[in-house]
What we know:
By secondary structure, this protein is of the alpha/beta class.
Amino acid sequence: MAGGDEVKEVRNQQVLARDYISAIPEESDMYLNTSSTIKLRVPDDDDCQEAMLLKNLYLSCDPYMRGVKHSDEAASSTLEDRIVFFATDKPITGYGVAKVLESANPKFKQGDLVWGMTGWEEYSIITATDSLFKIHNTDVPLSYYTGILGMPGMTAYAGFYEVCSPKKGETVYVSAASGAVGQLVGQFAKLSGCYVVGSAGTKEKVDLLKKKFGFDGAFNYREEPDLDAALKRFFPEGIDIYFENVGGKMLDAVLPNMRVHGRIAVCGMISQYNLEQPEGVHNLMHLVIKQARMEGFLVFNYYHLYGKFLEMVLPAIKEGKITYVEDVVEGLESAPAALIGLFAGRNVGKQVVLVSRE
Length: 358
Ligand SMILES: NC(=O)c1ccc[n+]([C@@H]2O[C@H](COP(=O)([O-])OP(=O)(O)OC[C@H]3O[C@@H](n4cnc5c(N)ncnc54)[C@H](OP(=O)(O)O)[C@@H]3O)[C@@H](O)[C@H]2O)c1
């Protein structure tokens, strides 16, 4: 630490939430605070014994950020509970890629690159440093650590391989298939020798699925008046694996189309996040008839597999066996609209905010 030396103080623009979001999120629910400053050193406070000062480079926009309301009562020692996503007096918290400017944690040093939970601001003091991963491979774009090499990549990997246990020749359906998680699930399914179909909300995204990500089939769910008929068209013999990203009507349409011993990995239900009352699901009886398994999962519980995941995915990226599409906006001022855009499907690929090029 800098000891008694003069400490530089710099501007620290931050994105803050005005209040907890209770309906459809809007850009105006957040604002850019341009008057904040920060001293570029790790404070001597008791809670900063292992803290790090980070310069944020890339921030990740993720659907979970919309709704998680942190209550102080929930504060506990678990990683998930300590993550404060939306507190009105602090910058929004989310995944990002950053450079270490100073570290009181002996596992990290100045100049290291990390990914994990950080703040929507130019510089962050992170006290919960156990949520940060050191970046060792820098011969890929750094922004990939917000996506394919970070939390969404691990989500696709854990959900597909660990929850769904795919077998060669099986049929796989992925919803929100062109997004951060979906585009990877589809490509993992192809690498596993499966037949894979995805759905997305625009023609451009459907084209991406077929032409760039190698899906065997794809459809625009917004243009299908009868989702059951659409699924029957692509899966006349039924679905072995459904990777669930959207919930609601889509889940209801999928259930009767599952095959015996099918698996549904419930990754998320984005169509439900902005509803005051979640829609009901009517076709659950098909789980019984098909002796199918439907299992929710959280990526946090699979981070112990991160090393194994990198061993698989890094060579696949470098050999061109896996491709990846990002949607990058520049500047913290663009972050609120980028986050909100996830719920209108404006993002084409993984939504990233570039804060600084270093
Ligand atoms: N379980 C976990 O640990 C975990 C971790 C990460 C993410 N997730 C979940 O995984 C899912 C995908 O996340 P992501 O980061 O990859 O996001 P993403 O797919 O990159 O972006 C969200 C996409 O969802 C689609 N969408 C938005 N509103 C919709 C609606 N009402 N109905 C249908 N589709 C809608 C939009 O695509 P279209 O244009 O195609 O509609 C939008 O682009 C989300 O449900 C998320 O919550 C779970």
